[in-house]
Design a protein that fits this description.
Chains A, B: InterPro entries: HMP/thiamine-bd (IPR015835), MTH1187/YkoF-like (IPR029756), Thiamin/HMP-bd_put_YkoF (IPR011522). Chains A, B: GO terms for molecular function: thiamine binding. Two copies of one chain form a homodimer. Chain A has five helices and eight strands. The first copy, chain A, is of the alpha+beta class. The first copy, chain A, has a single domain, classed as Alpha-Beta Plaits (2-Layer Sandwich), CATH 3.30.70.930. In chain A, a hairpin with a 4-residue loop joins β2 and β3. In chain A, α1 crosses α2 and α2 packs antiparallel against α5. Chain A is globular and about 45 Å long.
Chain lengths: 202, 202
Amino acid sequence: MVKHACTKSDIAGASFSIHPMSDQFVEIIKGALEEADTTKVHMDTDDVTTTVRGKLIHVFDVTKAIFVHAAKTGKHVAFEATYSLGCPGDSKGEAYMAEDEIPLNAELVKDIKQPVAAKFSLYPLGGGNYMDVIYSQIEAMKQHVTVSHAHYATRLDGEAIAIFGGLEQVFKATVEGGSSHTVMTVSISANSPSHTGTDRDE
Amino acid sequence: MVKHACTKSDIAGASFSIHPMSDQFVEIIKGALEEADTTKVHMDTDDVTTTVRGKLIHVFDVTKAIFVHAAKTGKHVAFEATYSLGCPGDSKGEAYMAEDEIPLNAELVKDIKQPVAAKFSLYPLGGGNYMDVIYSQIEAMKQHVTVSHAHYATRLDGEAIAIFGGLEQVFKATVEGGSSHTVMTVSISANSPSHTGTDRDE
């Protein structure tokens, strides 16, 4: 009987990939992974995705840093992630829950300018009363990024750092609003040669 | 007020990306999009993802064909998709629901050999009694592909055509089991230089 394996409710995690559209993809991925400080999360990399688990603040801090370090190479880089919190199941990675709340990468990457286009979808699978909280967080995001509709997703255009900040706030608001199992999928594109922001036919 | 835009319950769709880790990424993506016959789906491409919508059979047929055409170049190619059916909302793309059930690409790609590693997660958001159906579909998949646990996902190793076939069956079983809103996320990796299948630390 195969089930999706997931973690205890206080452990956040992300399964993500960095895809540099470049012949130097190995160097870019390895460089980004090395440049980020991942000591406050449990991290595994296999041939499909990298998994990070730990406190929510560190999961976002580490994934943001890895993406920004890859994107600042100037190559077209895509980031694909599923963030998750609250799926009952195994207990691996719990040791990392003893870490403090001080993100290790935030200060180092906060001034990196990297315009990106992103799409995210939020799936609050565990009940709760969060819709008003989510909407107010998305409204707050509009001060920093452009928010628009997309099929199966909400589109965000702006600086990578602001977008990751907004995504973290929306995710936190959903969890704190009572969703006992929250999933958020994110696609981000940096340095795309086809970026126009308006080349969609709708 | 921004909400995730989605479609009427009989329209299936996918928001997906092909990421060739190659300096020739533009040619590979464009070539794959041109090589696939997409006349039975509504398709939009922007700088983050491509959206296809129509009947379920054609959504899987087209995404499978585009991935296989990109992967057969031999380059390291990642495929990231969110399949969705049943989110109430707009009605665009409905015209394509008049198409017949004959997939246009299946015969053309069925003999292409392409070993891949994949991870998928299924989110049945709309109730229903489908768990037994899903498990039996996953059991059936084991005849053709290797199924294992992954964090936040189920891992599949095998031929791309068999894996897409299995994913389509699991998704259909969930919908037919009564889930009124079904979401499935899929990550697939082809021709990865780091593919070992066993380089995970767990």
